[in-house]
């Protein structure tokens, strides 16, 4: 059998084995389409949580933040000297002052401009360093939370949403913290100082200038009240599109097999239209904000000139004061432009920050072994399933009142027709899923409540699905046992028959994965690598769900013999799709329609003539032909 044929056969088997997840659907076509389309999105943090997270990030690098603000304030103060000194020059010339006085003021203006340039440059340097460090913290926190997400949460949310948050959203937040933060700080301080200077220089003209800025305030307020919701919707639409594209690519063979091409195209077009609608909404908001603001810039300048002219005629303010105030108000264009230019980016990145921070609201969304998770210690290796009921995403129950005790060291085979609940029971026993009702415990501790690091030493689920990371052979193995030595790694590989590892170009240092320019493993070798991880993890209970499905018969027999020696004295729960496994087990549990219908030894169940006897007779007859 060729590798392609084996992969095709495995895909068919996998579809049948997982049909219990979609048992509420009435046809295989609708099952496939539902699996490709369904995605329960990850949560989005509310604005208050985002504010608290932002303040926490600022506090982590408070000195750099304070230094950036201080330097920006000094730079803004240096920039105030120009208009004031220009006003003094006007008054000096009007009063008949000489060239020397004008030159002196001009030299001071030049020095102040140079000081402002140096302070601004250094302030940007400090601000950018603060932004880069903070961006790195956000990325590290996101990775920590993503690694701590429970597997069902990731499966139901879909890879598209998580990928979009970890790339586009994290990048947007990092860019804002690095670039927008320093720019907005500088511009904000300049605005405050400029307005303060106008008020101090000529209070009536300062009042006129402030009144002239009301239009900008109204336009910005209108925009801000609508922007956050619009950008959150845009981010969700982008994630939905990414999820549809990734699920379509991942299920390409299934799409082709069931003729779902047009449905997938329709779904993609619908997602693209939604992205277009949300993007058009944010563009509309900007198209209202910026023209309104541009038109409002001239209002305070005109107000100061008109009021200044009237007050100067009455001798209440000097001509130099009017010129200086008008120049100050004209100077507001640049910092206000900078602020408003970043308003759109801040709103967009704020929505991105809400999506990134939303991972913290997901149960289990933190790094394994983190101190906020209470460590539970099982009392023994006995596994007990009591009154368990479970349903996927609010559908009908896949498991219905299952009671089962697995004794330490025994080998239990779980058998039954496709959709009976076998694989679901395996996921509950491995702590991947939590029961809707009842309990699944190891040593009288709920399995799903164990810290992931502790769970790995208790129970490990091995399926026909596996993953090879774009890294070296050594690092792929150290995932299971970070402290393992090279001899231990080689011993684990030898146990599962992976003698090929020593023949690789760089041995354990060989990089795997074609995408990284390394060696690409076929299905059999990838599965052997996954089995070697299990050997290194050394759990007391192992759940096998078609763990050797991708291996050729000779390699599979070798791996099973090796695993049998390694697992001596350990508990083994085998989700048996081939009844030969059941015959070799200590006990057999028969599942049917989500219920445990029979439990006993192979010989006893065959003698009873029940459901297992019929399965055995059917399989044994097929196997003998």
Structure description:
This protein is of the alpha/beta class and 625 residues long. It folds into 2 domains: 47-361, ABC transporter type 1, transmembrane domain (ABC transporter transmembrane region fold, Up-down Bundle); 383-624, P-loop containing nucleotide triphosphate hydrolases (Rossmann fold). It is built from 22 helices and 10 strands. It has helices spanning 3-17, 28-37, 47-60, 62-94, 99-148, 151-157, 159-201, 203-212, 214-250, 252-257, 261-313, 319-331, 333-357, 422-429, 452-458, 473-478, 486-495, 523-537, 553-566, 579-583, 602-608, 611-624, and strands spanning 383-391, 397-406, 411-415, 437-442, 445-446, 459-463, 541-545, 571-575, 587-592, 595-600. The strands form 2 sheets. It has a 6-stranded mixed beta sheet with strand order 6-7-8-3-9-10, sandwiched between helices. Helix 19 (553-566) links the parallel strand 7 (541-545) and strand 8. It is elongated and about 120 Å long. The protein starts with a helix and ends with a helix.
């Amino acid at each position: 059998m060729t590798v392609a044929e084996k992969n095709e056969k495995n895909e068919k088997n996998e579809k049948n084995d997982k049909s219990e997840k979609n048992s509420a659907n009435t046809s295989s076509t609708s099952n496939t389409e539902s699996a490709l389309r369904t995605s329960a999105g990850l949560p989005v943090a509310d604005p208050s949580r985002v504010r608290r997270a932002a303040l926490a990030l600022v506090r982590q690098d408070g000195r750099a933040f304070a230094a950036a603000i201080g330097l920006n304030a000094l730079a803004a103060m240096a920039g105030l000297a120009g208009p004031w000194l220009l006003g003094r020059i006007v008054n000096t010339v009007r009063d008949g002052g000489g060239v020397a006085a004008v030159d002196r003021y001009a030299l001071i203006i030049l020095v102040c401009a140079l000081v402002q340039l140096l302070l601004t440059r250094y302030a940007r340097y400090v601000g950018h360093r603060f932004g880069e460090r903070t961006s790195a913290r956000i990325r590290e926190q996101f990775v920590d939370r993503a690694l701590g997400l429970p597997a069902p949460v990731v499966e139901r949310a879909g890879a598209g949403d998580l990928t979009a948050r970890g790339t586009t959203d994290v990048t947007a937040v990092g860019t804002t913290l690095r670039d927008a933060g320093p720019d907005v700080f500088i511009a904000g301080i300049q605005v405050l100082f400029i307005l303060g200077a106008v008020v101090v220089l000529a209070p009536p003209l300062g009042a006129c200038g402030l009144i002239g800025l009301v239009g900008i305030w109204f336009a910005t307020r209108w925009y801000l009240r609508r922007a956050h919701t619009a950008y959150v919707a845009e981010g969700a639409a982008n994630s939905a599109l990414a999820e549809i594209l990734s699920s379509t690519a991942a299920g390409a063979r299934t799409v082709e097999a069931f003729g779902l091409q047009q449905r997938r195209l329709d779904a993609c077009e619908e997602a693209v239209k939604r992205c277009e609608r949300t993007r058009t909404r944010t563009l509309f908001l900007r198209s209202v904000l910026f023209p309104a603001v541009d038109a409002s810039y001239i209002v305070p300048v005109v107000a100061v000139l008109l009021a200044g002219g009237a007050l100067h005629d009455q001798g209440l303010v000097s001509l130099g004061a009017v010129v200086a105030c008008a120049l100050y108000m004209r100077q507001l264009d640049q910092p206000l432009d900078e602020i408003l230019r970043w308003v759109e980016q801040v709103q967009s990145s704020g929505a991105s920050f809400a999506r990134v921070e939303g991972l913290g609201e997901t149960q289990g969304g933190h790094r394994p072994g983190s101190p906020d998770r209470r460590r539970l210690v099982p009392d023994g290796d006995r596994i007990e399933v009591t009154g368990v009921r479970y349903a996927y995403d609010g559908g009908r129950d896949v498991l219905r009142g299952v009671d089962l005790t697995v004794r330490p060291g025994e080998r239990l085979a779980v058998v039954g027709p496709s959709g009976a609940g076998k694989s679901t029971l395996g996921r509950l026993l491995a702590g991947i899923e939590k029961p809707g009702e009842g309990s699944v415990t190891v040593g009288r501790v709920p399995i799903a409540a164990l810290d992931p690091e502790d769970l790995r030493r208790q129970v490990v689920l091995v399926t026909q699905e596996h993953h090879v990371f774009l890294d070296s052979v050594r690092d792929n193995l150290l995932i299971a046992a970070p402290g393992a030595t090279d001899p231990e790694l080689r011993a684990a590989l030898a146990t599962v028959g992976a003698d090929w590892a020593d023949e690789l170009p760089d041995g354990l240092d060989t990089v795997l994965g074609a995408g990284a320019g390394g060696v690409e493993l076929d299905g059999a070798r990838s599965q052997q690598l996954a089995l070697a991880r299990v050997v290194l993890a050394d759990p007391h209970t192992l759940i096998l769900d078609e763990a050797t499905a991708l291996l050729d018969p000779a390699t599979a027999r070798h791996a099973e013999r090796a695993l049998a020696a390694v697992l001596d004295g350990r508990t083994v729960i085998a989700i048996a799709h081939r009844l030969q496994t059941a015959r070799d087990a200590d006990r057999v549990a028969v599942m049917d329609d989500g219920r445990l219908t029979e439990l006993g030894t192979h010989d006893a169940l065959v003698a009873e003539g029940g459901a297992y006897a019929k399965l055995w007779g059917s399989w044994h007859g097929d196997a003998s032909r």
